[in-house]
Amino acid sequence: HSQDIELNIRLRKAGGKILLVPTAKIKYYARADFKSFYKHNFRNGVWAIMPSLYSSVIPVFWYHLMPLAFVGSIMTSGLLGLFIPIFWVLCTTILALYLFIVFLITAQISWHKKNPYYLIVFPLVVLNLHVGYGLGSIWGCLRVIFSRLFWIRVSRRIPGLGKKEKFENLS
To answer: How far apart are CA 19 and CA 150, in angstroms?
Structure first.
């Protein structure tokens, strides 16, 4: 997962170029139901984060982290809203803004396709995509934070951490 993104980033940093061949043909099989689509998005979210354990470059672009920011802000403001009421306002504002933008895009697509079916299905698909990817990214963050490799790399970056101290015999 994410190897293509990480390779593209390293190629660009090295001055290379990525060739897109418009005549190339591929077969892509879209997920046919919401459950498999959600699982796919969750897995993609996990693997937007996990490569950071194994790569010296940040292996994703900022837009790969937007579902993490969206779902994380909803969860954080919702939990804080249990104790500090202003965070409920923040939570509902984020959700309302998100739903408004999804509605605008849905209306545009439905109008362009001349099919009102999109007004019902598209918001569910987009919500499934963003929530699945965002929750997967949160799970990926937890897996990184609780991995042994993460703490080994952190200890190597902080001087003095992870090294055994030598104590002189004071007697």
So the answer is: 34
Six-digit token string for 162: 């992870």
Token pair of 160 as six digits = 């003095």
90 pLDDT higher than 70: yes
Angle at 78 between CA 41 and CA 86, to 5 degrees: 140
Secondary structure string (H, E, C) spanning the chain: CCHHHHHHHHHHHCCCCCCCCCCCCCCCCCCCCHHHHHHHHHHHHHHHHHHHHCCCCCCCCHHHHHHHHHHHHHHHHHHHHCCCCHHHHHHHHHHHHHHHHHHHHHHHHHHHHCCCHHHHHHHHHHHHHHHHHHHHHHHHHHHHHCCHHHHHHHHHHCCCCCCCCCCCCCC
Average pLDDT of the chain is: 87
Residue written as token pair 């490799």: 149
Question: What is the pTM for the complete model shown?
Answer: 0.79
User: How far apart (Å, rounded) are the C-alpha atoms in residues 39 and 31?
Assistant: 10
The per-residue pLDDT for range 32-83, each reduced to its tens digit, is 899 999 999 999 999 989 888 877 667 778 888 999 999 999 999 999 999 9
Cα–Cα distance, 103 to 68 (Å, whole number):
21
- What pLDDT score was predicted for residue 5? 77
